[in-house]
Specification:
CATH class of one domain: Alpha Beta
Number of helices: 7
CATH architecture of one domain: Roll
Structural class: alpha+beta
CATH topology of one domain: 2,3-Dihydroxybiphenyl 1,2-Dioxygenase, domain 1
Largest sheet: 8 strands, mixed
Helix content: 10-25%
Shape: globular
Radius of gyration: 18 Å
Order of helices and strands: EHEHEEEHEEEHEHEHEEEHEEE
């Protein structure tokens, strides 16, 4: 992925998902979205798992890293011992869903369903291009959208620069959706720490919110739309109805575990995160990875930073 000249700029690297069977989940993402399997079948044991995933000392973790076109992708984790992957509830979950951009929604949907995924509703077009929500075989919610994130900005906010983007040849990571208590405060933190671009805050019509998030009648939510260098978006949702408190993230129990961001200057970003009120770990490194941080926002959402 291209490096930015801004020390605090962040490129989206991955979204981490907890799964009961890492081989089965890997096959799904490879078959449904042509994701490339970068690494699979690896095992980590011991105290490092407590540090990284809030797991027990004896936890064994098997993982697979799959990359979409452009480099960003998903990392799948299987824990042993494990607890059942919870059913997605977007009005409650911190990390609500992630978006995948494709060239043609109906064609991609056929591959998804053949690979074992299921649609939450039929494809729609409400003015920003064809899209739908679906679930993978383990119940993680995915928004399938036509075109890259820049095309959404052009159609939704009238951004002219998006019109020059070519059609997608392969699936790309489109955006990540995060539930926050105050999207105004969250936008300020993401701009300061990661050089994110603020594209504005818009209300989600209640009939769409009920459909998207399987919420009760009268679901009310606003979304702040951010852009990160590299063309991946970040959507910050604040629900006023139903208003549910944000609980603490525990990665060994959460369905969507954390977000991975790639930065140029880990120490500078770590300092910016601390000034914003978030906690983070001491940077660590392994033979396979450059230095990395684990951090939580002031409300407890988990992120992983790497250089």
């Amino acid at each position: 992925m291209a490096r930015s000249s801004v020390a605090g700029a962040a490129r989206f690297h991955h979204v981490a998902l907890r799964v009961p069977d890492v081989e089965r989940a890997s096959r799904f993402y490879a078959e449904a979205f042509h994701a490339a399997i970068v690494a699979t079948g690896e095992t980590k044991r011991g105290r490092g798992t407590r540090h990284l995933f809030d797991g027990g000392v004896a936890t064994t973790v098997r993982y697979a890293h799959l990359a979409f076109d452009g480099g960003a992708g998903v990392v799948l984790f299987e824990f042993d011992p494990s607890v059942a992957v919870p059913v997605a509830e977007q009005t409650r979950d911190r990390l609500m869903h992630f978006g995948i951009g494709v060239d043609d929604v109906p064609t991609s949907l056929a591959r998804v369903e053949a690979a074992g995924g299921r649609r939450c509703f039929d494809p729609r077009d409400d003015g920003w291009g064809p899209y739908l929500f679906l679930k993978d075989p383990d119940g993680h919610v995915i928004e399938l959208m036509e075109g890259p994130f820049e095309r959404l900005l052009q159609r939704f906010f009238g951004r002219d620069e998006a019109t020059t983007k070519p059609p997608l040849e392969k699936a790309v990571l489109h955006h990540i959706a995060i539930r926050v208590a105050d999207n105004g405060a969250a936008v300020a933190r993401y701009r300061a720490a990661f050089d994110a671009t603020d594209h504005g805050v818009v209300p989600v019509p209640s009939e769409l919110a009920e459909l998207f998030f399987e919420g009760p009648r009268g679901t009310a939510v606003d979304v702040a739309v951010l852009g990160l260098p590299g063309g991946v978006g970040c959507e910050l949702f604040t629900f006023s109805r139903p208003e549910k408190p944000l609980g603490q993230s525990v990665q060994s129990h959460d369905a969507v575990m954390h977000l991975g961001l790639e930065v140029d200057d880990l120490d500078a970003v770590g300092a910016a995160i601390s000034r914003g009120g978030a906690g983070h770990s001491t940077p660590t490194s392994t033979e396979r990875l450059d230095r990395s941080h684990s951090m939580r926002t002031p409300r407890g959402t988990q992120s992983s930073l790497r250089r």
